[in-house]
């Protein structure tokens, strides 16, 4: 992994019960994050990268905020949610100088050290697994978790590595998949990340969702989330929200397209394809497809975790 993440993340560390691969700086702050004070009216959105975090954030925020579309369009998603571990991977903490002409790196809302100053209700986003978050989190606040078929995550994660130039050099998907399988990518391993949340899916404060379920029936997810947050909306309001949350609509908005290259038509976007089962096009030999299926089976063999059928 050192070879691949050369300039970007060094040194990296392995933390938590499953040896999660995290970036420089996290080790210094893991304890502070673990000890963060959770408020009962906090709303947390937790997911492995590329699993639908952004999509779920927008859905949850609007439902919790009485469908305030004006608020949603006038304030970017990254200002509406604190991405708590962000500064631990940001240059400021890696002790690099801010870009010339800038005094600070921008990360105020997205800094766990400022969390106690934010008004309630706070909206918090994280890619950290539950075991690295405050142990009282679930007993105190509402938590949304979204999981996605790891094969689709792998494809999307590969694009993200290109978008954010995580690697110094381009890596073909097949090579990336080898790293994915061996948990040699940031945030890995993915299965324990999902399993930790899956194990808590019946907790009164946990709403566990699948990306595939959101794809299949966004209206029923809107219903579930509304009920969970004690909100009631009319059919019309829910249909309007479903339209707002469509891939085509969200893709149009610059606030969901992070990353340097996002505004250029021909290049990779943060909102890329927005489909389930698209992995099949990247695992393009019989052998690779079998291997991908075996990989999933091996990991769910001793568990009752099952990703929803997509057809
Ligand atoms: P793809 O790269 O497969 O398109 P995260 O926000 O966790 O990083 O997840 C990003 C993935 O969610 C990307 O997957 C992105 O396109 C998809 N996504 C974001 N908004 C979506 C939406 N409204 N509908 C469907 N997929 C969406």
- CATH homologous superfamily label: P-loop containing nucleotide triphosphate hydrolases
Q: Can you tell me the residue ranges where pLDDT is under 50 for at least 5 consecutive residues?
A: none
β-sheet strand percentage? 5-15%
CATH architecture: 3-Layer(aba) Sandwich
Q: Approximately how much helix is present in the residues?
A: 25-40%
| Count of strand segments | 7
Tally of contiguous helical segments: 14
How would you characterize the largest beta sheet? 5 strands, parallel
What ligands does this structure carry? adenosine-3'-5'-diphosphate
pLDDT averaged over residues: 88
The CATH topology corresponds to Rossmann fold
The CATH class: Alpha Beta
Order of helices and strands: EEHEHHHEHEHEHHHEHHHHH
Q: How many domains, as an integer?
A: 1
Tertiary shape = globular
- SS-based structural class? alpha/beta
GO molecular function, one term: sulfotransferase activity
InterPro entries: P-loop_NTPase (IPR027417), Sulfotransferase_dom (IPR000863)
Organism: Euphydryas editha (Edith's checkerspot)
Domain Sulfotransferase: 40-303
Topology, element by element:
Layout: E1 13-15, E2 20-22, H1 26-34, E3 43-47, H2 53-64, H3 69-74, H4 77-80, E4 82-83, H5 86-89, E5 123-126, H6 137-140, E6 142-147, H7 150-163, H8 173-181, H9 190-198, E7 206-210, H10 211-216, H11 218-228, H12 235-244, H13 247-252, H14 286-300
Parallel strand pairs: 3-5, 3-6, 4-5, 6-7
Antiparallel strand pairs: 1-2
The chain binds adenosine-3'-5'-diphosphate.
The site of adenosine-3'-5'-diphosphate has 18 residues, from α2, α7 and α13.
InterPro entries: P-loop_NTPase, Sulfotransferase_dom
Pfam families: Sulfotransfer_1
Family: Belongs to the sulfotransferase 1 family.
């Amino acid at each position: 992994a050192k070879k691949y993440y050369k300039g970007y993340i060094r040194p990296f560390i392995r933390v938590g019960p499953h040896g999660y691969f995290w970036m420089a700086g996290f080790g210094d702050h893991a304890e502070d994050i673990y000890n963060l004070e959770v408020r009962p009216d906090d709303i947390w959105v937790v997911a492995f990268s590329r699993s639908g975090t952004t999509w779920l954030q927008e859905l949850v925020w609007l439902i919790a905020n009485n469908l305030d579309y004006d608020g949603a369009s006038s304030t970017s998603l990254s200002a509406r949610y604190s991405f708590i571990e962000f500064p631990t991977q940001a240059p400021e903490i890696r002790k690099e100088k801010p870009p010339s002409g800038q005094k600070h790196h921008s990360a105020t809302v997205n800094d766990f050290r400022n969390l106690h100053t934010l008004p309630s209700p706070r909206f918090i986003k994280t890619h950290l697994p539950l075991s690295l978050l405050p142990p009282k989190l679930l007993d105190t606040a509402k938590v949304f978790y979204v999981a996605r078929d790891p094969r689709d995550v792998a494809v999307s994660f590969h694009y993200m590595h290109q978008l954010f130039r995580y690697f110094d050099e381009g890596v073909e998907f097949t090579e990336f998949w080898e790293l994915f399988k061996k948990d040699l990518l940031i945030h890995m391993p993915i299965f324990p990340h999902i399993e930790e949340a899956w194990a808590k899916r019946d907790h009164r404060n946990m709403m566990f969702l699948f990306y595939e379920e959101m794809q299949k029936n966004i209206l029923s997810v809107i219903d579930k989330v509304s009920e969970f947050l004690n909100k009631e909306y009319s059919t019309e309001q829910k249909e309007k929200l479903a339209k707002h949350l469509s891939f085509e609509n969200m893709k149009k908005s610059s606030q969901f397209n992070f990353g340097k290259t996002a505004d250029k038509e021909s290049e990779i976007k943060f909102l890329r394809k927005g489909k389930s089962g698209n992995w099949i096009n990247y695992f393009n030999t019989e052998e690779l497809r079998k291997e991908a299926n075996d990989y999933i089976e091996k990991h769910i063999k001793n568990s009752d975790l099952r990703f929803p059928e997509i057809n």
